[in-house]
Amino acid sequence: MPALVLANAQCRATFAAHGAELTGLVATATGLEYVWAADPAVWGRHAPVLFPIVGRLPDDTYLHEGQAYRLGQHGFARDQEFAVLRHTETELAFRLTDSAETRANYPFAFELTITYTLRGTTLAVRWDVRNPAGAPGNELLFSIGAHPAFRCPLLPGEQFEDYYFEFDHPVTLSKQLLRGGLRSGETAPVLHQEATLPLTYELFADDALVFANYDFTRVALRAHGAPHFVRLRFDGFPYLGLWTKGPGAAFVCIEPWHGVASPVGPPQELRDKEGILALAPGQAFAATYEIEIG
């Protein structure tokens, strides 16, 4: 299927039905592309949607009512074909529902709708998760998260280290330490009452920076001495990940999450996993975040 496009006078966004994934975001005035090109030799994704889990499970395994099931890191939605519900010049909606394939390792009925709306230089992303099950007691257990990757550096002649994260106010942050993609239960300080975090590859030497219990709602990616930026707004998200692949990778991810990786240890019941959301039959969950470019 050819790329699906949203466009206005300021911006052009492209998408793929595979994974309902944002694949490009270009400023019309400059022609500047902000989204990572998904070079398969480095990291072959642009902005995957993480569902029905965020992060890794021990041995890629969880339990549900005592039975073991397998799910790879970040779940399966990013590798599924979504149906296109509607497509106008400035709005695009995708939907994924459960199937025999998904129920084999995720025994839940679900309806996931992802809506992208372009307004000026801002792309709003809305997730709607619904439990359509008809029988009483069939809870839907899930997490959902964003994983957009932005080109860094954005312009020729710049370096990764020219960039920094800018928070909406001075923050004190500690990251949750990971071991093999699982949370070790330990933390390490990152910032103390500072509004910016300089980018270095060493910052990500121990995997992603994972934050919880933070009080900011905006993070911008900026370069010293340059006007261009990417800013994410994510009200009400309990977790945030910041990540790049490693030295030389020309991108960085800003990842608001409703969910987080499992702790080190044996597989656990999915309902006991930190960050898991539960919907009774007929209930729905919605969350929105925004990407602004300049």
UniProtKB/TrEMBL annotation:
An annotated GO BP: carbohydrate metabolic process
Database matches in Pfam families: Aldose_epim (PF01263)
InterPro entries: Aldose_1/G6P_1-epimerase (IPR008183), Gal_mutarotase_sf_dom (IPR011013), GH-type_carb-bd (IPR014718), LacX (IPR037481)
Source superkingdom: Bacteria
Entry cofactors: Ca(2+)
Keyword terms, alphabetized: Calcium
Keyword Calcium belongs to the record: yes
Molecular function (Gene Ontology), one example: isomerase activity
SUPFAM superfamilies: Galactose mutarotase-like
Gene3D superfamilies referenced in this protein's UniProt entry, alphabetically: 2.70.98.10
Keyword Calcium attached: yes
Quaternary organization: Monomer.
Name of protein: Aldose 1-epimerase family protein
